[in-house]
Amino acid sequence: MAKEHLLFDKTEITAAVLSSNPPHVANLQASKISSIAIKPFDEKATFGKKPSEKIEIFVRGNAEPIVYTKLKEKAFWESYKTSLKKFAKNNRITFTDETSVES
User: Fold this and answer.
1) Are strands 12-17 and 6-8 parallel, antiparallel or unpaired?
2) CA 47, CA 10: separation in Å to the nearest integer?
3) HEC per residue, 9-76
4) Which residues lie below 8 Å from residue 42, measured CB to CB, with a gap of 6+?
5) Cα gap 34→93, rounded to integer Å
6) If DSSP codes are grouped into helix, strand and coil, which group holds residue 87?
7) Rounded CA gap, 66 and 46, in Å?
8) 45-92, pLDDT tens digit by residue?
9) Domain segments of the chain: what residues?
């Protein structure tokens, strides 16, 4: 069964950081988050690459952003997008959604 890797509070995000070694849970205070971006992304699949999306959470003091991809988080993806948008607006964090813009 799939588990949520992003949990939201009024001023904090609890994120399971699976891309690091070892994986860990990070409590990200709104004051520590510099920006949040949702971008188009070509994700590796079984046969080649598939067009997908990724969420990047940029945290002050971290060299690399925390990244979540759509194929790995399929069950909760739309919930993540709406919750991140609301969280960013309420806490005055720069939020960019490049997937909603059509070229």
Assistant:
1) antiparallel
2) 41
3) CCCEEEEEECCCCCCEEEEEEHHHEEEEEEEEEEEECCCCEEEEEEEEEEECCCCCCEEEECCCCHHH
4) 49, 50, 51, 52
5) 6
6) helix
7) 24
8) 888 888 999 999 999 999 999 999 998 899 999 999 999 999 999 999
9) 6-97
